[in-house]
Amino acid sequence: MGTPGYRDHPVADWDSDATADWGEAEEFLHKYHAENPGAGSLPARLAEVYAEISRTGTYEHTLDEITYGAKMAWRNASRCIGRLYWRSLHVLDRRAARTPHEIYAALVRHLEVASGTDVRPGSRAGRQGAIRPVLSVFAPAKPGQPYARVWNDQLIRYAGYRLPDGSLIGDPSQTEFTESMELLGWKGQGTPFDVLPLVIETPQHGTHMYELPGSAVLEVPLAHPEHDWFLELGLRWYAVPAIANQRLSIGGVSYPLAPFNGWYMGTEIGARNLADTDRYNLLPLVAQWLGLDMSSETTLWRDRALVELNRAVLHSFARAGVKMSDHHTEAARFLEHVRREQQAGREVPADWSWIVPPMSGAATPVFHRYYHEADQRPNFYLDEEARLLARSGRPRAGLHL
Ligand code: ARG
Q: pLDDT grade, residue 397 (50/70/90)?
């Protein structure tokens, strides 16, 4: 569910005034060098970083450190079932981007590279739909200084409209954000799947709103392998889930803007986004079209509708040539990841309640065991202020009016 609560484990609020923590820097550099024996002299790097923190309050990561640090952050993301491929993360160094427009251009490029829709000459992008895990890292926060950020929680999200009669069109989780965008002058088409604009804020230039171009938003219309009527429901979903408002923390340095994406697992869309009662809430509609007996819960009409909705999601992405995995395959891969990590002498931090898929939990192998619960760094953190901005589309002061 979209409501905060027990699923959002508390995160010690980040103090953006504090200098880079030497202990964390040291721990990260030790791990980075231990896992990358070719990375040069550890004592020399430690001395350099110690001096830099003493002098400036922070330090600059090398391109290799930041690239490997981002991969480690993925490896430590306790809620992610898709971590087997953590080494394949494609890291784009955008630390030099300063203006909202530079940041916007880099975000568009991020989505094009991730979707395989990048058609620029000489680009190494693959086929359209061959989703690649990508992370773009922008400038780190400097102690006591304001930093650039994106308000949206994902680069691509559908608007939600509250109509005067109390009904809803689109994604109910986005109604507050959508209303704020409308107050800022944005106007959506009013369909259930209008892509929201991006809000980019920089210390020098304030807040700017941008529309994403079509090349950055690959989408898949949803059809069912057997039921022709399904296509007429007019459902669709975007191909690239790109988290935009989590802070990447590496070796005591915070990167408040470091959007990252993987590919979708079908249940994220079919068993949550389209099915949750506080999201698109489509199980009753699908059940009706399937002609199911909805007179009692014991007919399991919800469960049956859920399965058909999820079959449609997987079928549609496959026929559109857009990479997506199913929960059985992804669960098996996760346990393979746990095995490989143990072989490398590492524990895999994991949160059972997020790792177990939202349907058929016990039919997947990840259900039948416990996990190591730990907050290991590097990692990604959702700060309270970022969470509020994404929900409301308004800076905190506005919330207290
Ligand atoms: N569950 C979120 C969504 O449905 C996306 C989270 C990230 N998912 C991923 N496969 N990398 O939009």
A: low
262 lines ligand 1 (CB under 6 A): yes
Measured between alpha carbons, how far is 165 from 179 in angstroms, rounded to an integer?
16
Q: What is the pLDDT of residues 73-117, one digit of tens each?
A: 999 999 999 999 999 999 999 999 999 999 999 999 999 999 999
Give the nearest ligand 1 atom to 264 CA: 10
Asked if residue 133 has its Cβ within 6 Å of ligand 1, the reply is: no
Q: Indicate if ligand 1 lies below 6 Å from the C-beta of 170.
A: no
Q: Summarize the confidence of residues 262-287 as an average pLDDT.
A: 98
Residue nearest (by alpha carbon) to ligand 1 atom 10: 264
Q: What is the model's pTM?
A: 0.96
CB atoms within 10 A of CB 273: 20
What is the C-alpha separation between 11 and 119, in angstroms, rounded?
40
What are the two backbone dihedrals, phi and then psi, of residue 55, each rounded to the nearest 5 degrees? -80, -40
Q: What is the pLDDT of residue 399?
A: 45
Query: Would the CB of 268 count as within 6 Å of ligand 1?
Result: yes
CA 200 to chain centre: 17
Nearest alpha-carbon partner for 346 in 317, 384, 372: 372
User: Atom 4 of ligand 1 has which residue's CA nearest to it?
Assistant: 268
